[in-house]
Amino acid sequence: MSRLSAAELLSAADELADLLTDAVDGGASVGFLAPLGRAEAADWWRGRAEAVAAGELAVWAARTGGRVTGTVGLAFPGRPNSRHRAEVVKLMVHRDGRGQGLGRRLLATAEHAAAVAGVTLLHLDTETGSPAESLYRSAGWTRAGAIPDYAATPEGALHATTIFYKHVGPAVPPG
């Protein structure tokens, strides 16, 4: 598993696009509607390079057999009153690689990197009732609540989204 630089992200955009289209084709609610074309998915990944270069986004990719089989990201807010937190984004595992612990390893990687970076609180959202909910609960995340009709599935149906959070480092007093 490796953290991608902006140049590495650009270089891997087509591979990352394959993972993203697989996730959407598999019904994952990751912000896109089906059908998601490979070119559109690659362009989306390329569009993240600037945020990676600016330190606003960190992206890790896991490879199995030479291809990208999973990703996770950390989005860092830029406001002074929120520098202690980050959002876990785009945790995806290729359908061929699910059930083998890769999602848990990606999540642990993001949690560790956040703590090392001085982040003390992580948050994320996921489709209510999805298999991801059990992953987050078993990894020590706390359910904050659910918002009805928050996002659309790849097929366009509205569904509830569950918000989770986790403390990953010692709280640092302001000042």
List unreliable stretches of 5+ residues. none
Question: Sheet bearing the most strands, described?
Answer: 7 strands, mixed
Strand order of the largest sheet: 1-2-3-4-5-7-6
Mean pLDDT across every amino acid position: 95
Shape field: globular
Q: Kindly name the structural category.
A: alpha+beta
Tally of separate helices = 6
Structural domain tally: 1
Distance between the termini: 35 Å
Fraction of residues in β-strands: 25-35%
The CATH architecture assignment turns out to be 3-Layer(aba) Sandwich
Helical fraction equals 25-40%
Provide the gyration radius in Å.
Answer: 16 Å
Element-by-element helix/strand order: EHHHHEEEHEHEE
What features would you describe in this structure?
The chain has one domain: Aminopeptidase. Helices cover about 30% and strands about 35% of the residues. It is built from 6 helices and 7 strands; from the N terminus they run βααααβββαβαββ. Helix 2 crosses helix 3. The longest helix is centred in the middle third of the chain and has 15 residues. The chain is globular and about 40 Å long.
Name a few traits of the molecule.
175 residues, 32% helix, alpha+beta, single chain, 7 strands, Aminopeptidase
Q: What does this entry show, briefly?
A:
The protein is α+β, with helices and mostly antiparallel strands.
Summarize the SSE layout with pairings:
Elements: E1 2-4, H1 6-11, H2 13-25, H3 38-46, H4 49-53, E2 57-64, E3 67-75, E4 85-93, H5 102-116, E5 121-127, H6 131-138, E6 142-152, E7 158-167
Parallel strand pairs: 4-5
Antiparallel strand pairs: 1-2, 2-3, 3-4, 5-7, 6-7
Helix pairs in contact: 2-3
